[in-house]
From TrEMBL:
Lineage: Eukaryota, Metazoa, Chordata, Cephalochordata, Leptocardii
InterPro entries: DnaJ_domain, J_dom_sf, SRC_co-chaperone, TPR-like_helical_dom_sf, TPR_rpt
Transmembrane annotation, as ranges: none
Basic and acidic residues composition bias: residue spans: 8-31
Organism: Branchiostoma floridae
Pfam hit, one: DnaJ
Domain of life of the source: Eukaryota
PANTHER family: DNAJ HOMOLOG SUBFAMILY C MEMBER 7 (PTHR44200:SF1)
Domain J, first and last residues per copy: 191-261
Keyword terms, alphabetized: TPR repeat
Official protein name in the record: DnaJ homolog subfamily C member 7-like
TPR repeat extents: 138-171
Polar residues bias (residue ranges): 36-53
Amino acid sequence: MSTTTEQADDKENAETDKVKRPTKRRSDEGVGGHQRLTNSKAWSSASRNVSSDHSGKRLRFNPPHHAVSTPQTPRSKRSGEYEKAYDLYTEALTIDPENRLTNAKLYNNRAAVCVKLGRLNDAIQDCTQAIELDSSYVKAISRRATCYMETECFEEAIRDFETLYKLNPTPENEKLLREATQKQKMSMKTDFYKILGVERFATADEIKKAYRKLALKCHPDKHVGASEDEKIAMEKKFKAIGEAHKTLSDPVERAKYDEELSQSYLKDLMSDRTNAQTKVNVNTRSSGTPFKSRFTFHYV
C-alpha cells in the first residue's frame, strides 16, 4: 500500500475511511484539483456526513440531530440516508479524477454504502475500482473478499484473502483464508438433503412436501420488489431446490447420489485423520523428544 493510504488507515482504524480535505501543498496526485476539492460542497458533505464505528459493521451518519437514525428509525428512512451518502460519494468522485489515492478511498467508502443497501455486486465493482487505483489497499481487498463470500463466489474470495494475507499476515486473515477454502470445498459437494431441509432417510412424501414448501417460498414471483442481488440469490436457491427434488424424487438417481455422498464423506474423514496425524508427527519431531503418552497400558 502506498504510504499516504497506509498512514490514514492506521490512524482511523475503521473499515470506512474518512475522506480528508487535501492540502494546498503540491504533490504528484491531482495537483490541479486540490483547491477544487477543498472548496467542493460534495466533498464537505461526504466527509462530514459519513463515518463508521470501530468494528466497521455499522455505518452511521451525522446529519442534523433530528435526522439521526436510531434502531427505531424505519428502514425506508435509513435506506434514504444511505442513498444520499451514495450520491454524495458519486458526486465527489467527479471532482478530481487524477487524485488516485483519494478516489480509492471514495470508491471503498461508496462500496460500504452499497453493502448497507444490499447491492453487493455494486460493492464489488467499487472495491475493484479502489484496488485498481491502489493495488495494496487492504480495506478494499478485505471488503471485496467479504462480498464475494456473501455472493458465494468462493474462488474469487480465496484469491482476495490470499492477497490480504500476503499484505497483512495476521492470524485473523489466515483464519479468513482457511474458512473461505473450506466453504469452497463444501460448495463443491452439494447436499440435496440439506437444501430441502430433510433427513437423509426421509420418505418420498416428506421430500415432496419439503420441496413444495420451499419452491413456493423462493419462487421469483415472490420477490419482485427485492434488490437485484436478492433476486439473483433467490433464483439460484430456487434452481438448487429444483435440482435437489429432481434427484431425490427418482429412486434410481437417489440411490446413486447416496452412494456418491457416502464416498465423499468417507474420503474427507480419512483426509482429516491423515492431516491430523501428520501434524502430530511434525510437532513430535520438532520438539526433539519422543512422544510420550499420558496413559499407562497394562497387558494381562
